[in-house]
Amino acid sequence: MRQIALRRFCSSAAVSRWAAELRAAQRIAHIAEAERAKERQAEQRSALIADAKRAELEAVSGTPKFKDLVCQELEEALRWQMNIFKPNAMQAQALRRALNGEDLNICAQTGSGKTLMFLLPMLQRLHTTRPPRPMRSSGKDAASMRFLAQPEALVVVPSRELACQVAHVAQQLASALPDPPVIGLVTNGEKFTTQKMAMRSGDLRLVIATPARLLYHLSEGNLTLERLLMVAIDEADAVLYAADGINREATELLEALPKKTRLQTLLTGATMAPAHAEAIAACFPRVAHLSHPGVLVPTLQRSFHFVRGDKSQELVRLLERSARDPWLAEGAQIIFCSGARRAQRVHELLRECMPTLRMALVHGETPAADRSSALQAFADDDVRTLVCSDVLNRGLDFMSVRHVINYDLPKDVTTFIHRAGRTARRGQPGLVSSLVKPYEMQLYRQLTAGEHAGTPLERSSGRAGSAPTNAAKSNTPLEGAVDGAVEPPTAGKGERRGWSEDASPRAHRATDETGRKIRRQW
Q1: 12 Cβ neighbours under 8 A, 6+ residues apart
Q2: CA–CA separation, 265 and 286 (whole Å)
Q3: What dihedral angle (degrees, nearest 10) is formed by the CA atoms of 105, 268, 253, 278?
Q4: Residue 128 and which of 84, 152, 313, 518 are 20 to 30 A apart at CA?
Q5: Whose CA is closest to 241, among 250, 231, 253?
Q6: Domain ranges for the chain
Q7: Could you give the 3-state DSSP secondary structure of residue 283?
Q8: What residues does the Helicase ATP-binding domain cover (predicted)?
Q9: What is the C-alpha separation between 31 and 26, in angstroms, rounded?
Q10: What secondary structure does DSSP assign to 334-395, as a single string?
Q11: pLDDT tens, position by position, for the chain (522 residues)?
């Protein structure tokens, strides 16, 4: 009996030792596979950047350089202050035509430098044009006999944050000119009296404004548009149109523009529905449409995570995985929510679950001063995670952003495009991750079907989160804008597949149109 027990003990010890060795080997294999996956991801990102640069070089070969388009001072400001050495193909085409005095409606990819497409022609024209003599107001009393602001160039943008960003770029460029034009910022969130005092000098030549505050100053007689030579409307679809058509502020703004003089108009944006394009053609009959094939850049990776359990738990898991990814961990990230209350709840959740996360919160109810400080901290890398609503989905340029997370799916393709455009800017790679709950399936199908004014948004058959292969070759403006999009797997008899009960992603195999097996994270 003793020998039998000894043999059993030895055999059990051998089994335990064998199991321990097996577990150790599995751990080593898992670590090695993780390292290989990181290497593959790094190689894929490098290939994306190389392909984008190669495509850009092919596109700009034979196109003019900045020194062939603008004055030497502006070219040097681009080179030395902004590290921009040559225009991309879209910029070269738009600048050439805008500098020739054409009216343009420019629809270009997010991150393609649309701000320069209207600021450079404006500053070039102000540089070559003598400033007009100051105009006095027509009030009767002596106190009202002050100089009026009479800008020659006007930029209208939809939000205060975007106006501040455009003004910063304009100041960088204008400071290089021998006689820099005075630039005025007219937005909500700033003291009205401060703006009023700035206008009394009468020497503002370039005004960057949001519609509501601009109209208020016009009604108060603090500025006039009678001597306006150029007007640019950035994010034109957001400034001019509401859900039910052209909005009231846009109507008042268009009526305030001078009719007697020849006014050059530049409209820019990343999205333009056919109905909006037709309305713009009716309002601005001389405007020529200039667009880029494909709205999202080819260096943008997209993935959808289908969640049946607690979405907040999946968000925490996603952030933890991002923190373990060396490339994502080096950059910043933006988390988009459906509204102010949702953003507030997500911010409180992350502050409790991930207290070491350097984080800021911005939404429509955030005071202007707090917004400015949060965005400045984000730009200075003091904050690495920005939780926000769609108040920040347009135009803002933060080169450090590598990951955009849609905690709530956007309501339409246009919003998805603008959210995604906060990363993968200027030829750099970026990742957009979207969390999808069962009640958001209709929104998900609209995104993957591309129901945007009747324009189809084609699905990619690549792996979720992998690089798009043909987005740069798209002929349809919205084609190739969503990657990794397939229907959730349906449960067969006796099966439970598709939605993850505990919100953890599970691998699922699907088949694309060619019969090739592809992996999806569910």
Answers
A1: none
A2: 9
A3: 40
A4: 84
A5: 250
A6: 60-134+147-291, 300-486+496-521
A7: helix
A8: 95-290
A9: 9
A10: EEE-SSHHHHHHHHHHHHHH-TT--EEEE-TTS-HHHHHHHHHHHHTTS--EEEE-GGG-SS
A11: 656 555 555 666 676 777 777 787 777 877 777 777 777 777 666 666 666 656 555 554 566 899 999 999 999 999 999 999 999 999 999 999 999 999 999 999 888 899 999 999 999 999 999 877 666 555 544 444 457 889 999 999 999 999 999 999 999 999 999 999 999 999 988 888 888 888 877 789 999 999 999 999 999 988 999 999 999 999 999 999 876 667 889 999 999 999 877 899 999 999 888 888 888 888 888 999 998 776 678 889 999 999 998 999 999 999 999 999 999 999 999 999 999 999 999 999 999 999 999 999 999 999 989 999 999 999 999 999 999 999 999 989 999 999 999 999 999 888 999 999 999 988 889 999 999 999 999 889 888 875 443 333 333 323 333 333 333 333 333 333 333 333 443 434 333 333 443 333 333 333 333 333 333 333
Are the folds of 60-134+147-291 and 300-486+496-521 the same?
yes
Task: Tell me the CATH architecture of domain 60-134+147-291.
Answer: 3-Layer(aba) Sandwich (3.40)
CB-based contact 422:398 (threshold 8 Å) = yes
| Structure tokens given for 135 | 């105009």
CATH number attached to the domain at 300-486+496-521: 3.40.50.300
Strand, helix or coil at 290?
strand
